[in-house]
Amino acid sequence: MRPYLLLRLLIGAGGFASLLGGLLICRQVVSTCKSVTFKSSEELKVLIVADGLHWHTGNKNGRVRNNFYVADRAITFDDVADVATQSDCGRTPAWRGIVWVAQLDNEDKSYRLVSAPRGIWRIWGEVIVAGDEKLIARIEAAFHSKSRSVPG
User: Fold this and answer.
1) Does residue 63 share a domain with residue 124?
2) In terms of residue numbers, what domain contains 17?
């Protein structure tokens, strides 16, 4: 009977140690993964320009409103014409290398995003991005890289 009790005690202690180790690993992973947040689309624009990406207003007159497009290459109005409806974001060839960025809400309440785009999209604080998943991942990596380089 004694060997059986000793075996149960060892199995229980091993299970507890494994659980504790798993919790410590999860805590470390969560603490090192900062979520991506931007206060404004303008803040995101500064990051993407610093990362060597390009942006386009999405209109012919060049006026920046509350949204714009980001690309891994220089783009023209014709390049964004096929993605202007924000449908199937990131799921068609037209979206390859292109992400749409929009401010969710602005201070004077003159603009508010009414519905999420269809397709691949993320909300980063006060900004929504939609489009090419690889480019979204590149922007996230740039954000994390910048976050690690800033003390605090």
Assistant:
1) yes
2) 1-33
Tokens of 105: 């809400």
Each residue of 100-126: pLDDT tens digit? 999 887 665 555 566 678 899 999 998
Q: Is residue 82 located within the same domain as residue 47?
A: yes
Instruction: Say yes or no to pLDDT of 22 above 80.
Output: no
The average confidence (pLDDT) of the chain is 79
3-class SS of residue 55: strand
E strand or H helix that includes residue 76: none
**First-residue to last-residue Cα distance in the chain:** 58
Its sign, for the CA torsion 9, 15, 21, 26, is: negative
Q: 34-38, 72-76, 79-83, 93-97: lowest mean pLDDT where?
A: 34-38
Q: Report the distance separating Cα 41 and Cα 121, nearest Å.
A: 15
- The set of residues, in sequence order, having a beta carbon less than 8 Å from that of 138 and lying 6+ positions away, is 51, 53, 72
